[in-house]
Amino acid sequence: MQMAAEWLEAVEAIQQQVVFEFGLEEKHGLWLLRSATHLFPELGHIAIYVRNNLARDGKLQCGDMCENIPLIDLMAQPHPLPDTVEPCIHLHTVAAKAPLTVLCAGSFT
Asked: In angstroms, rounded to a whole number, what is the distance separating the alpha carbons of residues 34 and 26?
């Protein structure tokens, strides 16, 4: 995790330097730089993070039942589930406790 944070900090420093060298106000300049492929989709082939993005829309529709995937408890509190030794809870267990469930996933890299 530390290496990922260092890499992201290095990228941010480079972006700040580019914005500074072009004489832009930092907040708006960074927004423009980071939004370039959305504002100008024809630049998508240049940006590595766009060109190598494997994310796709899933097949689930509203009302569909998804797989019963294990969710790691970020608070590391063990849950009494006989089929696992890790501190996790399964998605269907969470969904059964709430009338509506929204699943949002992502990564920090």
From this structure: 12
